[in-house]
């Protein structure tokens, strides 16, 4: 019989959970290899065995953000209204993920760890997440909501808007709005209305 693995998937998940909590509570510097190991009740050897390095652990956290985002978007129901579907996926997919995992959002989008290098696995997962958005935007064109001529930049524009709103919200800059969710909906629908109008100009 082979030697059983000492550090299995449950260890990996526990280490990621601990690292995310430490970053959310005390910032990225708090998620040292030693601090994460101690939070789980294991040794630094476990962290190195599972992730290879601290940067490997941080990359795994970055990948986790997009894994969660993909699952959240995929869980959003599809209706016969492509505009509603895009808005709901933005709120119940992207916004919800950001609010539930602000530490991961800060790690990936705000780059709170200077010089962190994210590799091919991260790029593939991030690309898959963006592909979900592209599909939702392409449906707007397929069903005649926006002209095909604006399609190349439409997904990027939606992404830029939602990333900006998310960054503002986690920094407390949407607190002045009566309802941040309404601010998201209004902004997204206004953007899509503008794209729709571009076909008539």
Number of strands: 0
Q: Give the CATH superfamily of the largest domain.
A: Tetracycline Repressor, domain 2
* Average pLDDT rating: 93
Instruction: Tell me which CATH architecture of the largest domain applies here.
Output: Orthogonal Bundle
The top level CATH class name of the largest domain: Mainly Alpha
Low-confidence stretches: 1-5
CATH topology of the largest domain: Tetracycline Repressor, domain 2
Ends: how far apart?
A: 72 Å
Q: Strand-and-helix sequence, N→C?
A: HHHHHHHHH
The number of distinct structural domains comes to 2
| Rounded Rg | 20 Å
Strand content: under 5%
Helix content: over 70%
Helical run tally:
9
Explained architecture:
This protein has 201 residues and is mainly α. Helices cover 72% and strands 0% of the residues. It contains 9 helices and no strands. The protein has helices at 9-26, 33-40, 44-51, 54-75, 82-100, 102-108, 120-142, 151-170, 180-198. α4 runs parallel beside α7 (120-142). The protein is elongated, with a radius of gyration of 20 Å. It starts with 8 loop residues before the first helix and ends with a helix. The model is unreliable at 1-5 (pLDDT under 50).
């Amino acid at each position: 019989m082979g030697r059983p693995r000492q550090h299995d998937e449950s260890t990996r998940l526990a280490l990621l959970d601990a690292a995310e909590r430490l970053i959310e509570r005390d910032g990225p510097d708090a998620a040292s290899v030693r601090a994460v190991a101690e939070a789980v009740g294991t040794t630094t050897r476990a962290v190195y065995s599972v992730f290879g390095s601290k940067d490997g652990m941080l990359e795994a956290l970055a990948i986790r953000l997009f894994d969660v985002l993909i699952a959240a978007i995929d869980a959003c129901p599809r209706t016969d209204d492509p505009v509603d579907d895009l808005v709901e996926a933005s709120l119940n997919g992207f916004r919800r993920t950001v609010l539930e995992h602000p530490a991961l959002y800060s790690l990936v989008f705000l780059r709170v760890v200077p010089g962190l290098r994210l590799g091919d696995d991260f790029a593939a997962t991030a690309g898959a997440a963006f592909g979900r958005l592209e599909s939702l935007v392409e449906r707007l064109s397929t069903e005649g909501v926006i002209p095909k001529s604006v399609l190349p930049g439409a997904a990027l524009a939606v992404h830029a808007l939602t990333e900006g709103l998310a960054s503002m919200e986690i920094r407390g800059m949407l607190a002045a709005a009566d309802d941040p969710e309404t601010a998201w909906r209004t902004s997204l629908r206004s953007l899509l209305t503008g794209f729709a109008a571009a076909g008539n100009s």
